[in-house]
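Researcher: If convenient, please comment on what follows.
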Amino acid sequence: MFDTTGANAAYYNRILQHLGRPQLTPDQLAYCHMHTVDNALRFLFEDDGQLTAALAFRREMGYRDFIPMMTIEPHLKPLLRRLRPATKTAVGTNRSDTMEDVMEVHGLTDAFDLVVTSRDVPSPKPAPDILNRVLDHFRIGAAEAIYIGDSSLDEQAAQAAGIPLVAYRNPALQAWRHVERLDAVHDLLEAAGTN
């Protein structure tokens, strides 16, 4: 849905700076980009005292200032307009307490039939819990859905849930199909006879 690399880098670098730590390395950014904020902070701060301080500062700082740094994928809204209401749509994300603000700022509040975050399930991706919640909500089987994702966590979650993965801009993922643009998803669904 978004390119969040710049926003996530700025967010975690602000926390690191506040605690007198150096900026993210590329490997740290890659990890933080895919995982929940709590898991990312545990990864960055192994010392219990610093972790406690980082978690407290995170709550105080919030994420709202970073949301405008997120770049919405250019074909997302047109794709949703083409799919809905005939096709049900959902967001399944490892974001926790920021998703409502993200949707509001980017004009997506009513754009999906369901939003499932890491707070809504026992375990975040790569566990299949988020995707299973979507399947249960719509009362469909895994073969009746597709999951669009761009990370190895998405790949693992889709495999665990048995849902065909459409890999977005990541040819390294094992997927049912690969796309470089979201508008290609509509054509994939039509070709598969599901839309």
Notes: Residues 2-68 form one domain. The chain has two domains: 2-68, 73-192. Residues 5-18 form the longest helix (14 residues). The beta strands are 2-3, 71-72, 90-92, 114-116, 147-149, 165-168, 177-179.
